Amino acid sequence: MNTHDSDVHTISPELPAMFDGMKLAAVATVLYIIVRCLNLKSPTAPPDLTYQDTPLNRFLLKSCPQLTKEYIPPLLWGKSGHLQTALYGKLGRVSSPHPSGIRKYLPMQDGATATFDLFEPLGDHRTGGDITMVICPGIGNHSEKHYIRTFVDYAQKDGYRCAVLNHLGALPNIELTSPRMFTYGCTWEFAAMVGYIKRTYPQTQLIVVGFSLGGNIVCKFLGENRTNQERVLCCVSVCQGYSALRHSLFGGSSVKMIDADLSRLYTATSLMQIDDNIMRKFHGHSSLKEYYEKESCVHYIHNVNVPLLLVNSADDPLVHDSLLTIPRTLAAKKQNVVFALTLHGGHLGFFEGAVLFPQPLTWMDKVIVGFANSMCQWEKQKPPCQSGHLRESSCAEEKA
């Protein structure tokens, strides 16, 4: 017998244990990363509210429970602002409704053609009134986006007529008829749509709604001229940044304030470059800084006197938290403003659901319609001297 045949190669008993330990460590590391990235340990809570104690605000908060109840996002991924932001346009809206509307075309003075889609209510409003929601979508968005279609269908079923602006240049099948597209703060197209609604429906009252960039446009529109607030019951702005200049500074990108020709437009890789090369010049501004200053609603929003609900999310990756001092300060100073800040929701996400799959309707959809319903009810049953458009000081003056 060969002595080499008797050699036995054995594995040290410590090796399997070591491998098992490495596996456990790897699993623990992955779980830790998942917990951190998905923010699973973050608590849920009602929105943080800033407002003044007035009869109107007390009524609105009592009759719009979404503002005072706990917002609970989907358990596995809903506490990640990045995931909510990335998925808001698709997830939960793959089977979104297809509301039937009529496209309207409005010629502008500079040769541009504004378009909006008009959707009639699917039933009577609970107050019996004629109420139209005039809606300004987010950047580059229009009436065919999933989140807009979902919201419009929900509002129609609650008795609202809806008019949705299609941002200039956003619809691929609508050609531009002038050398400009939508911009951060240009209110011309929205004003044209509102004017059309007021002329066509002389008895209707308006609920103004703005999403993201649309929030900047609607607040700027209302603050530019007091006549723009006529027949407006209230305004709701969701996830806007309030100041384009401050937002661009926090964004980490820089654009040289230099003159440019059309060739630079074709090679532009960001909206800031388009704004700097084309849009600021079209609107007569000498620099991008001046353009962003003039286009931001932060310089106009204090002129808005109709009830105003401003909604943001603390984990919105597109709105720096320092920008939130603007709505918080405004709500602390003005009786007509309520600022609601959720812990979660991302940018226009605000999904609700149990564990993995969200509901088609979001917290955002429900809070806008809920707030609008409360405002309409207040106007219908308003006590003397407590209209949504009157300050308590005015009541005191009348009594005096």
Automatic annotation (TrEMBL):
This is Monoacylglycerol lipase ABHD2. It is an enzyme of class 3 (hydrolase). It is a single-pass type II membrane protein. Residues 132-240 form the AB hydrolase-1 domain. Progesterone-dependent acylglycerol lipase that catalyzes hydrolysis of endocannabinoid arachidonoylglycerol (AG) from cell membrane. Acts as a progesterone receptor: progesterone-binding activates the acylglycerol lipase activity, mediating degradation of 1-arachidonoylglycerol (1AG) and 2-arachidonoylglycerol (2AG) to glycerol and arachidonic acid (AA). Also displays an ester hydrolase activity against acetyl ester, butanoate ester and hexadecanoate ester. Keywords: Cell membrane, Glycoprotein, Hydrolase, Lipid degradation, Lipid metabolism, Membrane, Serine esterase, Signal-anchor, Transmembrane, Transmembrane helix. SUPFAM superfamilies: alpha/beta-Hydrolases. Pfam families: Abhydrolase_1. PANTHER family: ABHYDROLASE DOMAIN-CONTAINING PROTEIN, MONOACYLGLYCEROL LIPASE ABHD2. It catalyses: a butanoate ester + H2O = an aliphatic alcohol + butanoate + H(+); Hydrolyzes glycerol monoesters of long-chain fatty acids; hexadecanoate ester + H2O = an aliphatic alcohol + hexadecanoate + H(+); a triacylglycerol + H2O = a diacylglycerol + a fatty acid + H(+). It is found in: Cell membrane. Its EC number is 3.1.1.23, 3.1.1.6, 3.1.1.79. It comes from Seriola lalandi dorsalis. Gene3D superfamilies: alpha/beta hydrolase. Belongs to the AB hydrolase superfamily. AB hydrolase 4 family. Transmembrane segments: none annotated. GO terms for biological process: acylglycerol catabolic process; medium-chain fatty acid biosynthetic process; medium-chain fatty acid catabolic process; sperm capacitation; steroid hormone receptor signaling pathway.
